[in-house]
From TrEMBL:
The lineage of its organism: Bacteria, Bacillati, Actinomycetota, Actinomycetes, Micrococcales. This is Branched-chain amino acid ABC transporter permease. It is found in: Cell membrane. It comes from the Bacteria. Belongs to the binding-protein-dependent transport system permease family. LivHM subfamily. It holds the Pfam family CarboxypepD_reg. Residues 52-71 have a biased composition (Low complexity). The keyword Cell division does not apply.
């Protein structure tokens, strides 16, 4: 018969001291989180006014009515004006300079912009509404023509405090390329889409690795993980655009702040719920509710329009027949370095091996002396940080971020994790690369955002023919 621990023993005294200490830590974490929210709210309340004050000359200098005039200087969005901007590339996908672009809109608005040496143009608008963007074909470089003459006039919907982008592609053969021919498959276009797929796969992998580790260590499919991506992009917009921080410092600070939100989430929500043995189904419902709440919070503070982290038109670089923006090359390099570093950490370090052990068998890991709660706390922190970094990179590459950016990518992340194998970080990386490449190559035959439906098709096929994924293990159920 086991002995009963006396109430006055040292063990009981330590246990009684432990509960208040844990409560104090939770209270301190909550206070720090509220302080961060208060600081963010103050910055957000102050920065629009400062931005409007600094950008008012630009807004006032652009006429809203009257005859055509030439736009001077790059456009910068503010609460009082929006921007219509774009790039014109020649048949070799090089910038076309000196091309006139006419913009007409509500109230007799008429303005002409001329492309610079980088092929970029921009026009400032002070009234939201539908505008017509027209390329003056007489100003095109000699021997260059629009791929489709009917494409010279485009309708765009402009809003204040947001950018609307348009890209015109030129051909060296007049009338040789029609609107139907532009969707045809060619080796050059397939090569370009392959590069875009690798770029998309690397950026999705940043978020998918964390999502897979969360599932591996807790068994939870977090539907709020996409909002961590959105949070990273929107915080980068606040620091880099509204507050004028250096983009490199912004990326580091945003990643750390997003990692802190992962830590606080586990401390305030997930660990208490785990201790109460809440079922995974109930926890998944909590993540869905958290996702919806975060989306509406983003929309409340930032609005429904797309915001840009950097205001200038991105510069393009052509290498090996591929034309990508400078931000794309930098983002791909950073993503590759971070993913390799994460893989080496999981494979070579003691804590990384402990993380893999918990992911493989939490009960056995606990019996071996591993602090499972500590590992799970670290996984939530790492996953949120990687997702935040992914949001920053996506905001730069896609030239904008809005309140539902993460939601739009959530299906791609789940498809990547399922394809690679649930709970495996390496599987998430491989799955993300496959999904990214397939989705972008699908754009060769499917128009616009239909390409994202490919991820759903792949997800269904995986569940039908290999539900354990590429690196997953088949398990007997029942």
């Amino acid at each position: 018969m086991g002995s009963i621990t006396p109430p006055g023993s040292a063990l009981m005294r330590r246990l009684r001291r432990g509960a208040p200490d844990r409560r104090k830590r939770l209270v301190l974490a909550a206070v720090l989180f509220l302080a961060f929210l208060a600081t963010f709210a103050v910055d957000w309340a102050v920065s629009p006014a400062a931005d409007a004050a600094t950008s008012s000359p630009s807004a006032s200098s652009s006429p809203s009515t009257g005859s055509a005039s030439t736009a001077e200087g790059p456009c910068a969005v503010s609460p009082t004006n929006g921007c219509i901007r774009g790039t014109i590339l020649d048949s070799e996908r090089k910038p076309a300079s000196g091309v006139d672009v006419d913009v007409a809109g509500p109230g007799g608005f008429a303005q002409t912009a001329t492309t610079d040496d980088a092929g970029r143009w921009s026009v400032t608008v002070t009234t939201a509404g539908q505008y017509t963007v027209s390329v003056d074909q007489d100003s095109l470089p000699k021997g260059q023509y629009l791929t489709d003459a009917a494409d010279a006039d485009r309708k765009v919907n402009a809003t204040l405090n947001a950018n609307v982008g348009q890209i015109f592609q030129l051909s060296d053969q007049q009338g040789a390329t029609t609107s139907d021919d532009t969707s045809s498959v060619s080796a050059a276009r397939a090569w370009q889409q392959l590069a875009s797929g690798i770029r998309l796969g690397l950026l999705i992998a940043l978020a998918s690795v964390g999502l897979s580790l969360i599932y591996g260590t807790t068994g939870l499919s977090s539907f709020s993980h996409g909002e961590q991506v959105t949070l990273g992009g929107l915080l980068a917009y606040v620091f880099a655009n509204q507050l004028g921080w250096n983009i490199w410092i912004t990326g580091i600070v945003v990643t750390l702040l997003c990692a802190a939100t992962g830590y606080l989430q586990d401390a305030a929500i997930w660990r208490p719920l785990r201790r109460r043995r809440i079922s995974l189904t109930q926890l998944m419902i909590v993540t869905i509710g958290l996702s919806i709440a975060a989306q509406y919070a983003f929309q409340y503070f930032f609005g429904a329009s797309t915001v840009r982290i950097q205001q200038g038109n991105p510069e393009t670089v052509t290498f090996a027949g591929l034309t990508l923006t400078v931000q794309s090359y930098v983002a791909m390099g950073i993503a590759l370095v971070v993913l390799v570093g994460t893989g080496l950490f999981l494979a070579k370090t003691r804590f990384g091996r402990a993380t893999r052990a918990v992911s493989d068998n939490p009960a056995l890991a606990a019996a071996s002396g591993i602090d499972v709660d500590r590992v799970i706390r670290f996984v939530w922190t790492l996953a949120a940080g990687l997702a935040g970094l992914s949001g920053v990179m996506l905001g730069l590459v896609l030239n904008g971020v809005n309140w539902q950016t993460g939601l739009q990518l959530l299906l791609l992340m789940f498809a990547s994790v399922t394809l690679g194998g649930l709970g495996t970080a390496y599987g998430a990386l491989v799955g993300s690369m496959i999904i990214g490449i397939v989705v972008e190559l699908t754009n060769l035959v499917l128009p616009g955002d239909f390409k994202y439906a490919t991820a759903l098709v792949i997800l269904i096929l995986i569940l039908l023919f290999r539900p354990q994924g590429i690196f997953g293990r088949a398990e007997r159920i029942g």
